[in-house]
Amino acid sequence: MPDTGNVAAPASRPVAVIDVGATAIRMVIAEIDATGQVHQLESLQQGVPLGKDTFTKGRIRPETIEECVNILRGYRRVMREYGVAKNDQIRAVATSSVREAENRDAFLDRVYTATEIDLEAIEEPEVTRLTYVAVQDVLRDQPQLAGGNVLIIEVGGGSTELLLMQDGNVTYSNTYGLGSLRMREQLETYRAPAERLRQILDQDITRTVDDIRRNVPVATAVPTIVAVSGDARFAASQLVPEWDSVDCAQVGAKALAKLAGELAVVPVDELVRRYGLAFQEAETVGPTLLIYNRLAQVFKTRRFLIPKSSLRDGLLREMAAREHWTKEFSDQVIRSAITLGQRCHFDEAHATHVADLSLQLFRELRPEHQLGKRYELLLHVAALLHEIGMFISNRSYHKHTLYIVMNSDLFGLTKEDMLLIALIARYHRRAAPRPYHEGYTSLDRENRIAVAKCAAILRIADALDSSDKQIVRALEFQREPGQFQITTTGTDDLTLERLALKQKGTMFEDVYGLRVTIREAPGKGEVRRA
Asked: Which residues have C-beta within 8 Å of that of residue 207, sequence separation ≥ 6?
């Protein structure tokens, strides 16, 4: 056995994160020390017209593609100077201006071919998740945010990400096609005087924000908005004298409204001259602050908290943790799943118990399935939601569950995540996966196998609560040749569970090569029986 008593702590490692946005490509190079702390070394930013292309033409122009390639080549050289060379040291993401472009794949391929940077066009739920991760320090350092209603809002060039937190928990999240640059580019199609354009802008913002207000499930006022955007940080720099020395600033809603009104009527060229802004930033600052102002009005917000953190901080936090789904994030996903289940009037006691049994089995069977933390969370959510199809009908409810999950949104989960959850839940009963089944046919081999492994575990967990009385709780496990033995304590009659295991255990035996049996632990002085 190797001596592990004097193993040296892992050395610090340099990393880089890149955010390709609607108006600029930004990069942060940082060092992550042995304790997981992040120390920023350098920050770079160069403007690009990606949003202008996508939001007016629907595609990225060839000259813009080459401009982005040249910027990223330069970033690549800087990364090498800091010792950032391997793929696992780099995370590069693009948001709506690339995601929505007709030639997105051609753009991403060109970037990789020219720079070997694996740029990923991330979906809206991942942007929301990264935003949530980025503001964790703000939420932790502001005790007053733990109670009541708080909105975390990022108004970007192409979209607005919104999170509602109530009593410290995420209860709603969504992405809206309300972006400062998208709106400005659409306005340029009108041939109207500047004053008329301002009226149209106000009308568009009011109409969309009022729709958002109707969608967000909060009946009372939201006293605080956490504003996460470069334009909000610019506003803080103008309104808070000590901005350079704080990590998060507080700005009154009235003060921000006044600044928004002043900047909205200033021509872009004058904003560049007066404030030293890049042209792309000057284009968006007015519309962004008007959007924040209207949001504050409809939610009766009194103050903004404006942190210096950004999407790039969320990326760095995840790289530091070496785990994309932190415990805090996973807890919020689970709460979101329970909320969905409650809307479908699920049996919460049964669902949460089956989820607990599924996790016990998943962790015990780790040597066999070799699946990571991601699939543990997907299984947990699938177990919570496995019976919500009964909201539609008891007949073939597992198929209704598939439909509801695939057409729902859970905080921070991508469409692929939701598909895997839907399939795991769908296969908790009846037929095993078939190549022609809806959704399953689109999976690659790795995910098909993962679905089968997780669904087989869920079947066993569901069988262990066949009585719906949660009598099977503490489990012990033992492996014998061709057999996986489950022992439980404190139960008098396991007849229903044994019958259910006989019916549902076939898929588990096919996947894991083990037949599942269950028995009661003998009491004091009793002889163990099978």
From this structure: none
